Amino acid sequence: MNKPIFKTMDGNEAAAYVAYRLNEVIAIYPITPSSTMGEFADAWAALDMPNIWGTIPSVVEMQSEGGAAGAVHGALQAGSLTTTFTASQGLLLMIPNMYKIAGELTPTVFHIAARTVATQALSIFGDHSDVMSARSTGFGMLSSCSVQESMDIAAIAHASALAARIPFLHFFDGFRTSHEVNKIAVLSDDTLRELIDDKLIVEHRLRAMTPDRPVLRGTAQNPDVHFQAKETVNPFYNACPDVVAKTMERFAELTGRTYNLFDYYGAPDAERVVILMGSGCEAVQETVDFLQKQGEKVGMVKVRLYRPFDSKRFIESLPETTKSIAVLDRTKEPGATGEPLYVDCITGLHESMNNGWGSLQSLPKIVGGRYGLSSKDFTPAMIKGVFDNLLQEQPKNHFTVGIVDDVTNTSLDYDPSFSTASEQVTRAIFYGLGADGTVGANKNTIKIIGENTDQHAQGYFVYDSKKSGAMTISHVRFGPDPIHSTYLIQAANFVACHQPVFLERHNVLEHIIPGGTFLLNTPDSKDDVWNKLPRPIQQEIQDKKLKFYVIDAVEVAKNSGMGRRINTIMQVCFFAISGVLPRDQALDEIKKSIEKTYGAKGKAIVDQNLKAVEATLAHLHEVNVSAAINSSREFLPPVPEKPPGFVKDVLGEIIGGR
Question: What value does the CA radius of gyration of the chain take, rounded to a whole number of Å?
């Protein structure tokens, strides 16, 4: 077993890292949120980075996703190891070629940052509606729950495809996993070489179309033979689950990380079980841990291999004590009897009763629900609501969780105050402006902590679909243990507002805990800033007894020659205040990060950033809140005491920022 090397990266980079090393041809076409997988591959090829066989993959950008799928099909028929990346409508455009690739039993892997398919409106955010639209193509489907799994399952998918001769979709949740930054153990080239059987590659080459070995392929068939030919693939699909299971066993031998087709997690005598796949599994795992400590008999099943669906292994993964099950789908199929995973689980349960599979004492109650469509947040409070529903004599079926459905009343009630947040985890929220560098600085912060300490680090970034120029919110966590919190921070220790205009428009302190720390970039001095704050912000600082720091980062940036780029300055402030790292060590690591990040852009830019680092701490000040309150001017109402109704009820509310 090779000693792991830890790096911080997002899910897209993790999947692309493996795909690039295990392929010779990569056909790409950009679509959010999968675009950066193709961008990484293109950049690595431009740098002449070799794959595990010492050759540089050919990366070609086509004119559409349909063209990319066609290029993949052609390269596969020529005997090349080939892959692509896509999402949403892009995947739908690939479906005609996918039927052909699967029908010809040609191994490949498409890596999917799963995203909403446009229905009543377009959305760039994540759910499983795209991959579910492709489940009848004949592609196998493997799901990843986290950034670590995006790398690991990608490798398992490529090895399994070669062994089973079945192409695979490897999918993970768009944005929630594709853009989450986390500390992971990176697969070495040696590990990948040991996982991939060279004999299977030779067999793939020998199936290539060539004049030297003529073969009849791609014919038209009539009713006399088409049905029979369609059924000839059955042995390959019947064998596929065993092939994937053996590949997972081999992967565990090489890395020490164990995966199964269906992974059960929770109490061995659980009575209530939740079944799902994708990033929601991480939040459910965290909630199961918390509820178990409260004495509740709960558990979960993570679905890894969704197609072919192995009903026998599914049933065997459930504790024999299971009394009720909730199957959660991150998609909606209007008019269906149930969502796809729910229907498959019901089929598996009833087949188990007929065939005597597993050790269930009786047929459990089973209900299905929808969650997290278009990246709607999925929190432990909602998960507890799902478990609580299973306690009912007649649990609600076909429910939704995370929204309030006052039209058809499908939604579950839950207590939004329920939290599993650990006191050992530092939780920070940063409010920035798209393209102001806030997100990039936070990614560097995560890398500094993740790669230079024993701490685990996670970052998730909420973007407006307008992207550049809109508000960005960075959710950053650090802690001694792996972080499974695949949801937005609800209780922050630290909040930073990089643009003071946000104070007038948003309650940036909504999620900060009592005694937390608030950092504000403002042109106002520490003596004047209090009277310039909106009244609700003043009230939050007082009520929660916050530590309050200010800096004029724009002035520091201007004096350092950085224009209005304040990201490095605010990064220094975070390390100085939070104490996540010793101050001197943090400053040294920031300087190394600057050299690495901006070195290619020239010495002048590096020097400007280093100058800003040196100047920052002298301009960072803590505000004495008690003194500021005592010396502050009396708060005047926005309108006279007896104004006309319109002025009082409308204009007054607007002026008061309410």
Answer: 27
In 3-state terms, what secondary structure has residue 114?
A: strand
The span from the CA of 374 to the CA of 332, in Å, is 11
Q: Alpha-carbon distance 367 to 361, whole Å?
A: 18
What tens digit of pLDDT does each residue of 588-644 get? 999 988 888 888 888 898 999 899 999 999 999 999 998 888 876 555 555 666 777
C-alpha closest to that of 12 among 183, 174, 142: 174
Q: Measure the CA–CA gap between 113 and 150, rounded to whole angstroms.
A: 10
> By percentage, how much of the chain surpasses pLDDT 90?
82
Q: How many angstroms separate the Cα of 298 from the Cα of each of 24, 74, 271, 321, 391?
A: 45, 49, 6, 10, 11
Q: From CA 605, how far away is CA 560, in angstroms rounded?
A: 10
Q: Answer yes or no: is pLDDT of 575 > 70.
A: yes
Residue identified by tokens 């199929």 is 333
273 class by beta-carbon count within 10 Å (0-12 exposed, 13-18 middle, 19+ buried): buried
Q: What digits encode the pLDDT tens for the residues 172-200?
A: 999 999 999 999 999 999 999 999 999 99
Quick check: bond before 33 cis, omega within 30? yes
pLDDT at residue 121 in the model: 95
pLDDT at 638: 58
Using CA atoms, how far apart are residues 256 and 277, in angstroms rounded to an integer?
22
Q: Is 106 helix (H, G, I), strand (E, B) or coil?
A: coil
Contacts of 113 (CB under 8 A, 6+ apart): 11, 12, 33, 34, 37, 85, 87, 126, 171, 172, 173, 174, 175, 177, 178
Q: Report the pLDDT averaged over residues 541-548.
A: 95
Q: Which range, 65-69, 577-581, 645-649, is most confident?
A: 65-69
- Tell me the sheet residues that pair with 168: 109, 140
One-letter amino acid of 543: D
Triad 113, 476, 185: Cα angle to 5°:
60
Q: Mind listing the pLDDT tens digit for each residue in 487-523?
A: 999 999 999 999 999 998 889 999 999 999 999 999 9
Distance CA 134, CA 110 (A): 12
Report the SS3 class of residue 495. strand
Q: Is 592 helix (H, G, I), strand (E, B) or coil?
A: helix
* Pairing verdict, β 365-371 and 305-307: unpaired
Task: Please tell me whether residue 222 adopts helix, strand or coil conformation.
Answer: coil
DSSP reduced 3-state for 126: coil
For residue 150, what pLDDT is reported? 98
Structure tokens at 325: 């099950």
Enter the tokens of residue 607.
Answer: 């020097």
Write out the two tokens for 491: 């209780």
Rounded Cα distance, 301 and 305, in Å: 12
The tokens 């086509």 sit on which residue?
Answer: 62
Contact of 195 with 159, CB cutoff 8 Å = yes
For the segment 392-424, what is each residue's pLDDT rounded down to a tens digit? Answer: 999 999 999 999 999 999 999 999 999 999 989
Q: Which of 489, 449, 456 is nearest to 473 (CA)?
A: 489
Those residues whose C-beta lies under 8 Å from the C-beta of residue 172, and which sit 6 or more positions away, are 11, 15, 112, 113, 114, 143, 144, 145, 149, 150, 153, 178, 278, 279
Under 8 Å between Cβ of 117 and 130: yes
End-to-end Cα spacing for the chain: 60
Inter-residue contact 192 to 155 (CB < 8 Å): yes
